Amino acid sequence: MAVYAGALASGRLRHFTICLEDYEERLPISRHALFCAGHRRCTFPSDHENSLKKFQTDHIDLHYIHCAEPIVRIEKTIAAMAELINRGLLTGSFHNVVDVSDCHYTPASIWTTSPRSSSSPTSSLCLARGTMLRPASAPLPISTPFLLSAVTPRATHHQSHGTFSLPTHDSSPSPPPPSPVSWPSSADQARAKDLEQEVLLLNKRVDVLEWNTREDHQQIQKLQDELNNKEVNLSAAERQVSAKETALEKAEGGE
Fold first, then answer.
1. Compositional bias of type Basic and acidic residues: which residue ranges (predicted)?
2. Where are the domains of the chain?
3. Cα separation of 229 and 216, whole Å?
4. Which of 21, 41, 44, 95 would staple 72 via disulfide (CB 3.0–4.6 Å)?
C-alpha cells in the first residue's frame, strides 16, 4: 500500500480503489482517499458508485482488482470497467493474477522482454495502447506497480533491459534504470522462462476450472492437453540451455 500512497502524495495518482474480494467489510486505509472495497465482481458498477461517494469525486483514476473470483469470468469484469470508462467514471483498470489467454495478450513474461525485444511486439504494443507491464512476485505482488495510461510517446524505453523511464512532473532526476545483471542473458534462457510462465498460468487455469463445477469438462481436458504439450516443450528448452551451458564451461576450461 505504501507504493500507492507514494503515488498519491507525488500527484501522479489522485484516487484509486483496491478490490480485495475475500474481504467482507469496507475499511478506510488512510485519509488520502485510499479505500479497501470488498465486493464481488458482479456488483462492480454499484460498488464503484459507492467509492465515488466515499472519495467525494466524479471519477477514479485506477481500479485495482487484486484477487480473482473464479465464479465470474474476467471478461465480464473488464466489460463492466469498460462501460464505466466510457461514462467517464473510471480512467483505467488494473488486474492481478489474470490469465494471459483470457485477456488475449501475447504470453510474454516481463523478465523476457529484454532478449525478445527485437522480435517481440510487446513493448511497441504497450506504447500503442498506453499500458505498461507490471513485474510481480509470488504469492503476493510486492514489486512496484505500473499504472495504466502511464506510457506515452514521451516515455523512454530502455531496450537493454526492457523497461521504461516515465516523464516526471517535477525537476527531480529520474531514478537510474535497474541493472541488467539479473535479466536473462540468452534467448534460450528467455524461451525457457517464457514456457515456464505459460505452464504456471495453465496450471492456475485448470485449478480454477476444476473448482468451478459449471465449466465444461471438455474445456478442462483441452487445457490439460495444452499444459502437457507446454511441459514437454519446457523440458526440451531446459535441456537445450543446460547443454549450451555445459559446452560453454568446457570451452572456457579449454582456454
1. 246-255
2. 1-23+37-102+120-135, 186-254
3. 21
4. 41
Q: Which position has the grid cell 465444461?
A: 216
* DSSP 8-state symbol, 97: S
Give CA–CA dist 220/210, Å, rounded: 7
Of 58, 60, 17, which is closest to residue 41 (Cα–Cα)? 17
> For 73-107, what is each residue's pLDDT tens digit?
666 777 777 788 888 887 777 666 554 444 433 33
pTM (2 decimals)? 0.33
- Report the DSSP pairing between strands 35-36 and 16-19: parallel
Cell of residue 236, nine digits: 526440451
Amino acid code (one letter) for 19: C
Q: What is the dihedral sign for C-alpha 45, 97, 177, 132? A: negative
What is the DSSP-derived secondary structure letter of residue 61? E
pLDDT tens-digit readout, 132-169: 555 444 333 333 333 333 444 454 544 444 444 444 44
DSSP secondary-structure letter at 218? Answer: H
